[in-house]
Amino acid sequence: MPVVLIPLLLVADQMSKLWALAHLDPAPRHFLPGLYLTLVHNTGVAFGLFKGNPLLLGVFSLVVGFLLLLYLARARNDTLTTLALSLITAGALGNAIDRLGRGWVVDFLDIGPGLWPVFNLADSFVVIGVLLLLLPWGKPRG
Questions:
Q1: Which residue of 18, 32, 34, 110 shows the fewest CB atoms closer than 10 Å?
Q2: What pLDDT shows up at residue 56?
Q3: How many other CB atoms are found less than 10 A from the CB of residue 36?
Q4: Facing residues of 32 across strands?
Q5: Residue burial 61-88, b: 16+ Cβ < 10 Å; e: rest
Q6: Which whole number is the average pLDDT over 19-39?
Q7: Residues belonging to the active site
Q8: In what order do the strands lie in the sheet with 35-42?
Q9: Banded pLDDT at 45 (limits 50, 70, 90)
Q10: Residue 48 pLDDT > 70
Q11: Do the beta carbons of residue 108 and residue 63 sit within 8 Å?
């Protein structure tokens, strides 16, 4: 069931980025307590690493996304693992679309100017998915 979330998450990610491009600029705009909206054109990956090679990063993200899709289509995982991998897949594909289509990723979520790198929904999906995979859900304690 969570695999059907992938297209919904991709649409949410891309729609939020289109909204950010239409309504935001690089000046931080206070949105909620602890959250600002700041438009950033990110040519790298997490924390701005590996800037300047969007084609390579885009192809890598696309390959990771498609490999995860193939794995999800064939493997029989528990619901939590499937959810986690679906989140990671949607995040990888969402940022691949940006890198290959624009040459950079649209980032706009800012937890405080200068406190943390600006990010987007796709980044959040990947982080949440990885955390779900790392948490010891249902594993025996000992």
A1: 32
A2: 85
A3: 19
A4: 35
A5: bbebbeebbeebeeeeeeeebbbbbbbb
A6: 95
A7: 107, 123
A8: 29-32, 35-42, 105-110
A9: confident
A10: no
A11: no
The rounded distance, in Å, linking the Cα atoms of 8 and 95 is: 15
Dihedral Cα 126, 132, 133, 134, nearest 10 deg = 110
pTM: 0.88
Which residues lie across from 58 on neighbouring strands?
none
109: β partners: 37, 119
Give the span between the Cα atoms of 140 and 142, in whole angstroms: 6
Mean pLDDT of all residues belonging to the chain:
89
How far is 83 from 79, CA to CA, in rounded Å? 6
In 3D, which of 4, 6, 31 has the Cα closest to residue 19?
31
Pull the structure tokens for residue 11: 């649409």
The structure tokens listed for 108 are: 């706009």
